[in-house]
Amino acid sequence: MTSLATKLVPEVVKNLIPYQSARRIGGKGHIWLNANELEQSERYGESESYNRYPDFLPHVIEKAYLEYSKDAVGGEALQCESLAVRGADEGIDLLIRTFCQPGHDQIIVCPPTYAMYEFCADSIAVNTVKVPLAEDFSLNVAAITPHLKDSKVLFLCSPNNPTGNVIPHEQIVALLEASKDSTLVVVDEAYIEFAPHTSVVNLIAEYPHLIVIRTLSKAFGLASIRVGFLLADKSVMDYVARLIPPYPIADPSALVAKKALQQEGLAAMRRQTDELVSIRNWFAEEVAGLAFVEKVYPSSTNFVLVKFGTDDCLYQYLLQKGIVTRNQAHDPRLARCVRISIGTRASMQETLDALKAYPFN
């Protein structure tokens, strides 16, 4: 039976032969003259081998991430593959470039949501259909469904950025059922460690057109190493892997990721996440009690979205205090809203003190 991915992928990608780097082809020996590298170079840090292209370590961290993902859903066997990418953003870009033809295809997004889905589509002249979230930030399934037949990819973010909420499981399943013959469904789980029980990765076995995006940038606290993962059925990965660069992850980044995915690193991540959730809940409760705050939206992430009952979102006021937040006023749905990432207890106390000092009449 032909997979949906095979039906959707453009012929140019279907016929693409992946570039085989020297490291990927491999070989054994003690003199390496196969990759046009310098045999020696200056030393700029701890490593003595910056002159060599990276070993193909992504295989190692992909396997480790798959094991971690399995444990996170109660030890279930996951019928999917893992692909290491340079942050979730590259994963988004790869999926659009793999399955969408410029000037011909379209994707679906549900704003307010992560802006990179639309940006990546725009960058290669792929159209974006926008179906706004409902008033409570849940999906408008009835409004999305008619667009599925004409769209290659549907992007969902759960927990969602910038609203912080989890998309109800039954809504995702309803869309997976409706898109079986037409559309790939991508669920961006960048913040999933803050709500691990809501992951849909175990549904890939039943819905091979489901793709899950993950990252080490959030709960793992490794934003600077630029490592993310795609989790998908082999039928999808067969095509995405054709577009992956020959040396996708630099060795220093891969080595850090490898350590983070070992038991000690995972335990540290979970302790860190628990502490951050505690600080988030305390901060949200304190901010919600301020007279000029209209609403603090429920969050399953490492940030809170705050709507102020003032003329603006207090972004400039906080900036004057040396506190940099994220102004969301560019989206009409989020007027007077600011997104505040959760930091240390001391940083959040300073932010709270600054808000309490706001001259509100």
TrEMBL record:
It is an enzyme of class 2 (transferase). Its EC number is 2.6.1.9. GO terms for molecular function: histidinol-phosphate transaminase activity; pyridoxal phosphate binding. Pathway: Amino-acid biosynthesis; L-histidine biosynthesis; L-histidine from 5-phospho-alpha-D-ribose 1-diphosphate: step 7/9. It holds the Pfam family Aminotran_1_2. Its cofactor is pyridoxal 5'-phosphate. It comes from the Bacteria. Coiled coil: none annotated. It catalyses: L-histidinol phosphate + 2-oxoglutarate = 3-(imidazol-4-yl)-2-oxopropyl phosphate + L-glutamate. The modification N6-(pyridoxal phosphate)lysine is found at residue 218. Keywords: Amino-acid biosynthesis, Aminotransferase, Histidine biosynthesis, Pyridoxal phosphate, Transferase. PROSITE patterns: AA_TRANSFER_CLASS_2. InterPro entries: Aminotrans_II_pyridoxalP_BS, Aminotransferase_I/II_large, HisP_aminotrans, PyrdxlP-dep_Trfase, PyrdxlP-dep_Trfase_major, PyrdxlP-dep_Trfase_small. Residues 43-355 form the Aminotransferase class I/classII large domain. One of its GO terms (biological process) is L-histidine biosynthetic process. Belongs to the class-II pyridoxal-phosphate-dependent aminotransferase family. Histidinol-phosphate aminotransferase subfamily. This is Histidinol-phosphate aminotransferase. It comes from Photobacterium halotolerans. The lineage of its organism: Bacteria, Pseudomonadati, Pseudomonadota, Gammaproteobacteria, Vibrionales.
